[in-house]
Specification:
The chain is mainly alpha-helical. The protein has 7 helices and no strands.
């Protein structure tokens, strides 16, 4: 028996959260994120910083709620590899917690630090800049481990889905590939910060995620006519 309502809810949350995250991120202040003097000045002049980061957190929470609810859909079939799903749930919960910490650092602490640096007298600017960079490096670390946790969650869910007969197998493969892109993002963020390599991995992850999430939505709604109610 397949709980079609739960599957539709999960698929809708996943796709809706991903789309909302991409849209909100377009309003994030841009520039060379590793050129700290220039990017800190840009951040200091940004007036929608808090709203953008709150929107990113809300979007990620919606996406991860969809991933967590997917576990209950998978658990309906007794043949599903439930341990992979359980590890996926644990990793997704860790990813959400880490993303909350990340947005507290980036959306609040970093903004306050760049504002203080930009408005400080010349005699204090060097010290203010050093403390702002320290917050930035802390952001790198938390972002790195968030990406690792989310990538592992996607890989675990992909391992669970690949053995379920009513889900097209390519969905699992694409989910696994998107998980690998998050692992790459985590490594790059931890080793070289917000570089062009990380930006490329982010875009690739978005594309792969949108494909499998859209496909899952189609499967969820197509089943309305293909599966009898039980």
């Amino acid at each position: 028996m397949i709980d079609r309502a739960s599957l539709r809810l999960s698929a809708g949350l996943l796709l809706g959260g991903q789309l909302l995250y991409i849209v909100v991120t377009q309003f994030h202040a841009g520039g060379d994120a590793n050129n700290h003097p220039a990017i800190f000045a840009t951040y200091a002049g940004n007036e929608i910083w808090a709203a953008v980061h709150l929107g990113q957190f809300a979007s990620m929470a919606i996406l991860l709620a969809g991933l967590l609810s997917l576990f209950f859909v998978l658990d309906i079939e007794t043949e599903a590899p439930t341990w992979a799903g359980r590890f996926g749930v644990a990793s997704a919960a860790a990813a959400l917690a880490l993303y909350g910490v990340l947005q507290a650092i980036d959306g609040v602490a970093l903004k306050e630090a760049v504002n203080a640096w930009a408005s400080a007298p010349d005699t204090e600017k060097a010290a203010r800049f050093a403390s702002t960079e320290a917050i930035r490096w802390l952001e790198w670390g938390v972002r790195s481990y968030h990406d690792f946790a989310l990538g592992l969650a996607l890989l675990m869910f992909a391992a669970a889905i690949v053995r379920i007969t009513w889900v097209p197998r390519p969905i699992a493969y694409l989910m696994g590939l998107s998980g690998l892109t998050y692992l790459v993002q985590g490594w790059v963020a931890g080793s070289e910060g917000f570089s062009p390599t990380q930006s490329a991995a982010i875009v690739l992850g978005w594309v792969l995620s949108l494909i499998w999430m859209t496909w899952l939505v189609v499967v969820a709604w197509w089943m309305q006519d293909s599966e009898p109610n039980t």
